[in-house]
Amino acid sequence: xxxxxxxxxxxxxxxxxxxxxxxxxxxxxxxxxxxxxxxxxxxxxxxxxxxxxxxxxxxxxxxxxxxxxxxxxxxxxxxxxxxxxxxxxxxxxxxxxxxxxxxxxxxxxxxxxxxxxxxxxxxxxxxxxxxxxxxxxxxxxxxxxxxxxxxxxxxxxxxxxxxxxxxxxxxxxxxxxxxxxxxxxxxxxxxxxxxxxxxxxxxxxxxxxxxxxxxxxxxxxxxxxxxxxxxxxxxxxxxxxxxxxxxxxxxxxxxxxxxxxxxxxxxxxxxxxxxxxxxxxxxxxxxxxxxxxxxxxxxxxxxxxxxxxxxxxxxxxxxxxxxxxxxxxxxxxxxxxxxxxxxxxxxxxxxxxxxxxxxxxxxxxxxxxxxxxxxxxxxxxxxxxxxxxxxxxxxxxxxxxxxxxxxxxxxxxxxxxxxxxxxxxxxxxxxxxxxxxxxxxxxxxxxxxxxxxxxxxxxxxxxxxxxxxxxxxxxxxxxxxxxxxxxxxxxxxxxxxxxxxxxxx
Length: 505
Description:
The protein is an all-alpha fold. The protein has a single domain, classed as Growth Hormone, Chain: A, CATH 1.20.1250. Helices cover about 75% and strands about 0% of the residues. The chain contains 22 helices and no strands. Helix 4 runs parallel beside helix 6 and helix 14 crosses helix 20. The protein starts with a helix and ends with a helix.
């Protein structure tokens, strides 16, 4: 009985592919090659960027205390803000023409190799004895990497808004791109497992049976471990990112390009864009939880690999549901999908904290419940991520209708700058709170039960509060339904009229 269903599913997939091939020559339609190239691009650049999330434990492994590590990363947000503005100015001043060199694609494939190389340099521990010299080296490496990341990241994000003017196409290619990005997080997400097997943590564990079976594996230092992982993942990411050369741009602003300063002014006049950005204020609070997460698994639970278990088990249902995103987004408005997901995540984080604190989060039952709560809140995560992007991309059409400008690069730069600022605040708060909670400055120092409990509270409760804050602005978002249809219709008429005038001229 199961076999016919399987064939039916395969046939349905084949029909979808054939439909894409049949329509790829229509105006505004993407080719099958562009679909998988966009997914691979999001995967590749995501792989090369994902390792930056491990800089905090890497810095600790080379001798920094947690407060210094978070302070360095927080201070670097200032450079990120400056660099985002500089990069957006260059990108938005580029001219895109139908069938010509892309305004955004020109940066992706050419800069991908430089992004990979500088990502590796961030995790190289030079033989420096002075800690100030070590910190200076880390800052320089990070600053250099971020230059290439900004050009690639802003350009790839901007591609989401210009690959097609058709709403049905957007939800489909954003789904494919989200799948690629999800995979880019899943593979580096296995780092804690490799960590347990290859670093000195293995010799400290009580799993003698596992150690005897895996005894042939070499034991390396923690700092070298991060270096080897970065080399491997950036190599894979670079190979995938080069497919970005196949992407095309189809949406162009009807009016003449504005100066970058005017683009900034235009952004701040877009109330719907500002509304969506304000949801990121929740990340100030959530950042405390994200910063505490790796230390909670390493110290409070005593097993860093449990973090990989959670990422893997939560990633699978999210990935599966993501495949069904076009169906869900036809049934429910994108903003409602985001609201549901964030409130569900908040409920799961709060529930996890109170229930697992009662039964003991380090017990087998407690660990099982932690995994279960995270699986539940992750299920709609993939669809929610796509819904957020659709809401965001739709504001570009609204901006073009109101001002005649799109300014994708500047818009992403502005949101990036503002996000870096709130992330910096979150990191500073995380370092201060963890230090005040008694977080030891030495890697091998004793962690009291009180400190372990604090790490659990930081990870769970602050994330829950952040999810609630994130959801609030979406209750007031208006670009959907008839209003969005009217915007699309007016823009289509305007673009058609301008194109006719250009042809006559």
